[in-house]
Amino acid sequence: MATSPTVLAGASSAAPPDSSPASVAAPVEAKFPLIPLLIAVVVGVLVATLGVGGVVYYLVRTGRLSGREGSAHRTEIAIPAATHSMVLEPLLVNLADAGGSSYLRVAMTLRVADATEGKEAKPKEEKPKEDKENSGDVAAVRDTMLTVLGRQTADRLLASDGKEQLKAELKAALAEHNAGLKVMDVFFTDFLVQR
Are 72 and 152 in contact (CB under 8 A)? Predict the structure, then answer.
């Protein structure tokens, strides 16, 4: 009995008789759509970036994530110091001009910080205080005002920034001469220079 040899190992490596050697060596190319794949990746990255940015922006604006805007917002809500108004009667002052004929008529209101009784003192809303209650303070303030105003000239007061400079000088003089009185702001309610 004659048997034919079985080919076990070399059967898969043998090329079919009708194929050429050039077609066996060339790999089969897979055709992937490259441009639509690239567009999908770019759009995905853009959507993810916008989503993360939106979430971070929301968290910073609501204060759940600390950032510059959240801390700046907290400083705006600081409780203002309790103040009261000190209304001064109009002053008539001779100015320091060469001829000696110039004068200033001015009425002022001062915003003065209330004296706190400790750290636990709660600030109250602005309240007007009677001038008669603190007549000693009013007399000292009027004296300081007359001293500062008497050194001014008409040209200096009528300059474009004359009133602002005068306010700064008045605040400095009040802080120096009246240490117990903290003046927050000076308001001119009447201001007349006569030459």
Answer: no
pLDDT (0 to 100) of residue 136: 75
Q: How many CB atoms neighbour CB 91 within 10 A?
A: 16
* Beta-bridge partner residues of 18: none
In 3D space, the residue among 142, 150, 182 whose CA is nearest the CA of residue 166 turns out to be 150
Strand partners, 45: none
The predicted model scores a pTM of 0.52
Residue-wise pLDDT for 42-55, tens only, equals 999 999 999 999 99
Greatest pairwise CA separation for the chain in angstroms: 152
Q: In the structure encoding, which two tokens stand for residue 80, read together?
A: 């203002």
Backbone angles phi, psi at 92, to 5 degrees: -120, 120
- Tokens describing residue 132: 């008669």
Average per-residue pLDDT for the chain: 79
Does position 194 have pLDDT exceeding 80, yes or no? yes
Residue 108 in contact with residue 90, Cβ under 8 Å? Answer: no
DSSP H helical ranges for the chain: 21-25, 34-62, 68-76, 135-150, 154-158, 162-177
pLDDT band of 120, cuts 50, 70, 90: very low
The answer to whether 144 touches 179, Cβ cutoff 8 Å, is no
DSSP symbol at 14: S
Tokens read off for 185: 């702001």
